[in-house]
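Per reviewer request, we include the raw input and output of the structure prediction for the construct analysed in the revised manuscript.
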Amino acid sequence: MNLLDRLERVFFWLSGASTDNLEACPAWERRKYVAFGATVLVPCTFAIIACAYALSTLTDNWLVIAPVSLVWAFIILTVDRALLATYRAYQNIFRKLSQFALRIVVAMLMGVTIAHPLTLLLFKDTIVSAIEEDRQAEIEQTRQAAAAQKALIEARVAPLEQQIARQREAWNASFQASFLDADGKLIEQPPTEEELKARADREKQISEATAAARERLAALDADLAKQGAEHQKITAELNHWQTEFEREVNGQRSGIIGLGPRAKSIREDQLVWRRTESARLTSALDSLTAARAATLAEIKTTEENVNSTLDSKAAQDAARMKAEQDRLDALKRQVQQEQADQFVGQQNAIRETLKSQIDALLMQMKGLQDDIARLSADEQERIAGIRAEPRRDILTQTLALHHLFENGTEGGRFALIAYLVLCALFMLVDTIPLVVKFFSKPGPYDTLLDCDEAKYDRERLAFLRGFDRYMKQLVDSPFLHITQNRPLERALIEGVDRSRAAKAFLEHLMELEQAFQEKMRVERERLEAGGITGKARMLEEMAETFYADLRQRMEAFFRDDRRTPVQA
């Protein structure tokens, strides 16, 4: 057997046909089934590719991908062979249609199963882009959620920082504290009664010494006020009439340019005496001003003399009071030291309280900062986990492909069309052998196969009829009660069958012997009538051989029958 014959047998096996029956068929019938077998390999090849790609999304180990892909291809191959092998060309149209419909359903399932991974492979780049967009969207959602949680914590951090700042300001202020009065001002030593009395005496003596001068100063101020008012009035009137005079001289009122009658009247009646009066008042004001300055100098001199006298007396009093003041200062310093020590103790207690409060606030701040750091770490870990996810599994890619289908752009429509075309293509490829068989005329192989099936069907019907006849005879026989004992029933059936077989065998042998003797007699008579004596010996040898063979068959039949055990 050459290589082509072996390949032909392989394709016969793929088509689900019997090699023995096909070898009895013409060459064109064998070529048809070789084509059927080749069409079975096409979906298997695509199944290997699709399964390998689907598994590559889960693992990169080819020691796993290759065996599983081959097993999946073998499953597809087995299903195709089973459907082809069970198709019968001579069955009725309804069975053909039902079988064809079943094949269409299986082809649809297999087409989708094979086309789906190939579609994912065809649109791999687009699907990867969609998956990455979903990944980025999920990362952005994670960041937004983390930012919202951080914002809640940071909203608690800001007031806490303000509290810490206020406590620290109070802590720093405790080192700059001083003795304060009720109004918040530094405590100053109030003047004593003696100082107040001395100050009042000083003011009284100065007032008495300068009383006359102050009276003159008041009179001068009154004259200055009176003379100043008159001077202002005369000056205002003089300015008015001077303006009128200039307008007359310029011809703005009477139209006469130069010193006319009205201009002369204004000068003589209004300007001359007012100018004289203004000069007098100015001289009087100057003299009053000089007198006032002299009076002020006198008052100042008097005050200085009084102050000098009082200062000398105050110096004597100060020397006397200094000793007393020193004693009081010593007592004051002692009291202040005690108060300072007490104040320092109070400030230390306040600082300890502030320190404990600041430490508690810092602990709260540290806890919030740790929460923010933990949220940041969780965010980074989550983002790293999202980025580290391969997302190459079939489910993720299928969801991305579904989103691509739902997308209204041309890419989504093209992907859907390609998916449907691939499914239809694999359905067509998977149904081609059955379609060809369905629409083609039954060939010699179909005829031989139908004959074999018809023969086995007839044998089955004959067995059923014989068994029915046997059961009817058993009902009418006295051995019906034996059927209640299964071993005895089987032994009886075996005995009856063997008896009948032996009877039939003996009858057959007897008929065979009678026919042989009759033929031998006729042959002897023919030889004797023809005068042939050489063949008589040959006839005797044939008779001996025949009877020896007949005896051997009988012995073998009954020997095998005795040795055959009865099945319980």
